[in-house]
Amino acid sequence: MAGVERVGDDAVLDDVLRLRHEERTRLFQRVHVATEADARVAAAWLHGSCARGDADALSDLDVTVVVADSAICAVAGDPSRPVDYGRVLDSPRGRWIRQIAEPLLLLEAPQNAPAGGAFLTTFFAGKTGPQQVDWEWLPRSTARVPRAAVLLFDRADIPRETGPTEDGRPGTTPDRTPYEVAAHAVPWFWATLLWNAKHAARSPGGTQMLMAGSTVRAVHDVEQFLDPGSAPLAYEPVIGRLQDRIRVLFDLIDRMERLTAIASTLCADIPSEVAPRVRQYVHLAREIMMSA
Question: pTM for this structure?
Answer without folding.
Answer: 0.91
